[in-house]
Amino acid sequence: MIEMLQYPFMQRAFVAGLMIAILASLSGSFIVLRRYSLLSETLAHVSLVGVAVGLLLGMSPLWMAVLASLVASWLIEYLRSVHGMYSDSVLAIFLSGSLALAIVIVSLAGSFNASLFSYLFGSILSVSTQDLWVMGIAGSIAMALLITFFKELYFIAFDEDVARAGGIRVTLLNFMLVSVIAVIIALSIRVVGTLLIGALMVIPPVAAIRFGMGFYPTTLLSMAIALVSVVIGLSASYLFSLPSGAAIVLCLLLIFIIALVINRR
User: Fold this and answer.
1) Burial class (CB in 10 A: 0-12, 13-18, 19+), 159
2) How far apart are CA 165 and CA 225, in angstroms?
3) What is the pLDDT of residues 190-239, one digit of tens each?
4) What's the predicted TM-score (pTM) here?
């Protein structure tokens, strides 16, 4: 297995995968606690629209995915917080609408090609050195924001109204959190794929919660689960020629089942 690390594309895939594992599991802990898990799936589908537009117009699919995901995250939070719409309703509208729009754009382009397929399910071959720099810079900023406002986000996740009464800038922090999640999802699609990134963000916290620890230990365990799954998933992807995103998600599901069996309460 050490042999695979001699190849530059595998080195890039592991670096990208480990960065994504830390960021996705950390931010995922907040949305799982808020029962807002569908947000990751919705923004992943919106990212697909950005990728499709990028491929159609000959622009960078990655940056178009970041832009589409950011705009959608702001609209979702605006409709939820300002207009008082139910979260699941808003997310369902964006989920189905973005998928329909992506299909129409791809149909107009007449090219459901290998490039789009790699964004759908992830491809370790598609991670470039430039992608790593972008992930490193954007990931560092996202990590710094999540750590700086960790206590406030934790408080909001448990009770938004009490947090607002306590003087916490709930609206501003909610917009910041969805923006960070939007960027993480858009940057992750090269490795995990748009259809599977939601699993990397949701399954680790859900599996960690089964052990009934406090929020901080649960968050650390969630990150450990994500890291182990990425390492095993990428290794299996290389050894058995499997799609990297699918291999990682299957590892996550296996760990979740083990956690479920160990803690049946």
Assistant:
1) exposed
2) 35
3) 767 776 788 888 899 999 988 888 888 999 999 999 999 989 988 888 88
4) 0.83
